[in-house]
Amino acid sequence: MTAVAVAALFSASCAGAVTSSTGDVNRTSESTGVSRIAIGDRRLAPTLSGTTLEGTHFTLEGLAGKVVVLNIWASWCAPCRDESPVLAGLDRKLAGQKVRFVGIDETDTATSAIQFVTTAGVRYPQLVDSDGALLRQLPLLPQKGIPSTLILDRHSRMAARVIGPVTGEEIDTLVSELLHEN
Prior knowledge:
Strand content: 15-25%
Strand order of the largest sheet: 3-10-9-6-7-8
Shape: globular
Largest sheet: 6 strands, mixed
Distance between the termini: 47 Å
CATH superfamily: Glutaredoxin
Helix content: 25-40%
CATH class: Alpha Beta
Order of helices and strands: HEEEEEEHEHEHEEH
């Protein structure tokens, strides 16, 4: 991939979505950073399932009752290389709590993706999304431009998102807020 193509990917306008006060999903308002979704506006996340990098079948359905941090990444994404070790550390730190991390690898070769997660120390499941079909099911995330992260509450509802690179502090705060919700 040429430097121009990579630059175009990073500068592409995001086509994500936000919920309105009535809970309608739209794709017109987008900005980088953290967005929280009010409890009354939250919608159920789609039941994503697919094949992991290890070749096993995985579905989000089995994570009901847990806060889920769903991170979209690719091995060729520079910000993803920075945030993935942070997410791997948080996954280990929060392992005893009702929190699970799941990755979705976008448009990668298997070799590059496996090398990436090994180098980053990532041990949580990684769904392969070579054609973008899984990402298209997530209306709150941009369909172009990664990384992005979607956080589900314990009721499998889309509760927060981060467009662009995430910090450990941001994820730690969002997860803590969701763990303490009634």
